[in-house]
Amino acid sequence: MDRLHLMTVFVAVGEEESFAGGARRLGMSPPAVTRAISALEARLGVKLLQRTTRYVRVTEAGQRYLDDARRILGEVDEADEAAAGINAAPRGHLTVTAPVLFGKMFVMPGIIDYLNRYPEADVSALFLDRVVNMLEEGVDVAVRIGPLPDSSMRAIKVGQVRRVLCASPEYLERHGIPLTPQVLRDRTIIAATGVSPAVEWKFGPESGPANIKLKPRLTVTSNDAAIEAARSGLGITRLMSYQIAPHLATGELKIVLSEYENAPLPIHIVHRESKYGSAKVRSFIDLMVDRLRADKHLN
Questions:
Q1: Comparing C-alpha atoms, which of 113, 136, 140 is closest to residue 125?
Q2: H helix or E strand, kind and range, residue 262
Q3: Contact at 8 Å (CB) between 266 and 147?
Q4: 178-217 pLDDT, tens per residue?
Q5: What's the confidence (pLDDT) of residue 153?
Q6: Residue-level pLDDT at 82
Q7: What is the DSSP string of 106-165?
Q8: What is the DSSP string of 3-46?
Q9: What percent of the chain is predicted at pLDDT more than 70?
Q10: pLDDT tens digits for 236-292?
């Protein structure tokens, strides 16, 4: 059997964790899928899948092969697109990830623009406040905030944001504007675990680095909830500057202790290393780079 065909069948079964699921995805019969997997394992001389009556799982060798097969099949698709011509219209499926609020505020408008421009393309948007493994989760493009780890990914810097403290004018009028980070120990603190998993806030350059341990009165698991609590006048919270930009503009929130902020955090568009430039990925990246670099809230 054709090696790329065998890889395609294995990826489908490995991702679906089911021979029947892989067969449905590929429009093949289950016996044909079983024969393909058996032929692949015989060719390689290694067991790729652990089968029981209840599930199918990749073995350790199977996981390595699955990762490599995904990469190879992706490069084959991109090579086909490149051969078809650099001016070919973007088409096919694109998976994009970004932090929740950043995705909602800045990436989703770009996705809508992209889909309106390219009717043969479709997009899955994963807006999550965690670092997505792009290879394992099949992500084509990611927006990352903060320093990047060393990797084989390509990255394009598109802006920067600050981590800021804020509160409502009503709260600050009742309790006063804090002048040093140490004062926060006596204030009502709202902690958003999406931004600050540990309730120890780091401050910077005015008086040198300082870590302040705080006991929040309210801990929430979403940045939206922290914003609402701060807008209502409950207390002081710490968020990314872009997350509160609309509420700063309306005067619902005010930034405090700005002179103690740490260095801004870079924003990058990250995509998987590739020998070829996929039209669908290249076009989306170009569009998002232009949009994000032009946004005043990210510079």
A1: 140
A2: none
A3: yes
A4: 999 999 999 999 998 755 555 889 898 766 678 898 999 9
A5: 78
A6: 67
A7: IIHHHHHHHHHH-TTEEEEEEE-SS---TTTTT-SEEEEESPPPS-S-EEEEEEEE-EEE
A8: HHHHHHHHHHHHHHTSHHHHHHHHT--HHHHHHHHHHHHHHHTS
A9: 92
A10: 999 999 999 999 999 999 999 999 999 999 999 999 756 556 788 889 999 999 999
- Asked whether 75 and 274 are in contact (CB, 8 A), the reply is yes
Q: From CA 146, how far away is CA 266, in angstroms rounded?
A: 5
Q: Is there a contact between 208 and 271 (Cβ–Cβ < 8 Å)? A: no
Decide if 201 contacts 184 (C-beta within 8 A).
Answer: yes
Residue 55, token pair as written in the block = 């599930």
Going by the DSSP 8-state scheme, the letter that residue 2 receives in this structure is -
CA angle, 200 then 201 then 202, to 5°: 120
Q: Left if phi > 0, otherwise alpha if psi is -120 to 50, otherwise beta: which for 192?
A: beta
**CA separation for the pair 141, 192 (Å, rounded):** 26
As given in the structure block, the two tokens for residue 52 are 């029981």
Tokens of 159: 């802006």
